[in-house]
Design a protein that fits this description.
Length: about 500
């Protein structure tokens, strides 16, 4: 691909990424990552990673990246989320180069970048200070390598290509423990291509050193992850992997989330929340399904332009099964964001299917883009889809404390600390998460009670019962928060 065209497509990626990133409040997972990123010294960051009991300890490369980024660009919400942009730019730069040397038509690259610019799933997670953009970029590197060796398998061990593949695999495995199955799937897919095409690429000393580096890096990461598991680190067990969670993952990845209810509604009422949004969801879903099916049929008729199914399925299905299996065995919920490494491959298949449609079917392509753009715009700009508003809740708590009031806090503590709240055993700001009713009755009553997601922070219903029995009334309401004050 010529440099001006590549620069233009990367500019589109950059502008789309900038449009996706907001300065709204951090939510729970982001707040936990941010609290580590703002540690003043590397030693303090390491210490926080050691005592981490959640999944952040199993995201070593991303957490280190975010800590370094914060030292350069600051601790603000938007600044932390902008740490995602280098990864999507890096991934697209390599993937576009790989596409230009692949078997696919040139317009597939244009469609890919256009789809990525409006993809609701990708744009939503670009707006989170979490490792998903790093995983996406790493998966793009690996996909670029696979596309190139599929077209010319004899080049598989060229130093430049091999470095791309190994960097992508190590980044996938190091960004998160859940990236390990996808790195393994990419390795098997590369082997499948070489075996299927009976290729005998020439080994060199540089390629042997590269393989040695891959083995060493994977070994170190494996040792690190084993230590974190022994220390009890892992994802939250608030939900389980099942049919419903897998359906929600497909719903997110398909780009329909912006057409439906927000996450709080889905969390509270489940699938029934979709009923009130039935028309836009059904219309958008059927349109996407119909356009995709038409493209797939058209693509399959053009044998010379068909995507190579063998290695693509291997790179997709085996890690997918492995990731869902980890969720089942580890007793945590697999959602769409945990499958981000699959998205470049799914997006490429979509771009190839749309690219195979003829001139008379270009209107369908425009409709596809319109549905995704509308869903993305809703996720990004609609008040309905705002993140948990820890910033406003923390500011309300601070104002109450300055007025000499007693505050109870039933929400995430790390995110509260990021926003400046300080908890002490005898202070006027008291954390109560999943407390027993007997514990609450012996305490001085609060002037302000701040409660977030009941299924996480009031599982036994003790706080809800206290609110009713002691005459508290809801005051301010922020996304995912209700602030209760005592009845005058």
């Amino acid at each position: 691909m010529k440099a001006p065209r590549l620069a233009l497509l990367l500019l589109v990626t950059l502008l789309a990424g900038l449009a996706a990133v907001s300065n709204e409040s951090l939510w729970i997972d982001e707040g936990n990552a941010a609290l580590k990123a703002i540690q003043p010294t590397f030693g303090q960051w390491v210490q926080m990673m050691k005592v981490e009991g959640g999944s952040d300890a199993q995201m070593p490369l991303y957490m280190a990246w975010l800590w370094g980024w914060e030292k350069l660009f600051g601790r603000g919400e938007q600044a932390l989320r902008l740490a995602n942009l280098p990864w999507i730019l890096l991934g697209h730069a390599f993937l576009l180069a790989g596409l230009s040397r692949s078997r696919l038509k040139p317009r597939v690259a244009l469609l890919y970048v256009g789809l990525a610019a409006v993809a609701p799933f990708l744009c939503y997670y670009l707006n989170e200070a979490r490792p998903y953009a790093m995983e996406y970029g790493a998966a793009c590197l690996v996909l670029a390598y696979l596309l190139e060796i599929d077209a010319a398998p004899e080049r598989a061990f060229e130093p430049r290509l091999l470095a791309t593949a190994i960097a992508g695999m190590l980044l996938l495995a190091g960004s998160s423990l859940l990236g390990v199955p996808w790195a393994g799937g990419a390795f098997l897919a590369a082997g499948w291509i070489l075996w299927q095409q009976r290729a005998r690429p020439k080994l060199s000393l540089a390629s042997l050193w590269a393989f040695g580096g891959l083995c060493l890096g994977m070994g170190l990461l494996g040792f690190y992850y084993l230590k974190t598991l022994q220390a009890g680190a892992g994802a939250s067990s608030a939900g389980k992997t099942g049919v419903v969670s897998c359906l929600f993952a497909a719903y997110e990845i398909a780009g329909l989330a912006g057409l439906g209810p927000n996450r709080a509604e889905l969390r509270g009422t489940g699938i029934s929340a979709l009923v009130s949004h039935g028309f836009p969801l059904a219309t958008g879903g059927l349109l996407l399904l119909g356009v995709g099916a038409a493209g797939a049929v058209q693509c399959s008729r053009k044998e010379s332009r068909k995507l190579p199914p063998g290695w693509m399925l291997l790179a997709l299905l085996l890690p997918l099964v492995g990731t869902i299996g980890l969720g089942v065995v580890g007793h945590f919920r697999i959602l769409g964001r945990h499958l981000m490494p699959a998205f470049p491959l799914l997006l490429l298949a979509t771009a190839a299917a749309l690219g195979s449609l003829g001139p008379r079917q270009r209107g369908l392509v425009a409709l596809f883009f319109a549905v995704w753009a509308g869903s993305f715009a809703s996720l990004r700009f609609s008040p309905t889809h705002r993140k948990d508003d820890y910033r406003s809740a923390a500011h309300a708590a601070q104002n109450a404390l300055l007025s000499g009031k007693r505050v109870w806090w039933a929400a995430d503590l790390a995110t509260a600390r990021y926003y400046g709240l300080s908890f002490s055993p005898r202070g006027t700001l008291t954390p109560w998460m999943n407390a027993a009713a007997a514990e609450l009755e012996g305490q001085p009553p609060p002037d302000l009670l701040i409660l977030s997601k009941r299924d996480l922070y009031d599982q036994g219903g003790a706080l809800e019962g206290y609110i009713v029995s002691h005459g508290y009334l809801p005051g301010a309401i922020f996304p995912a928060f209700t602030l209760y004050e005592k009845r005058p």
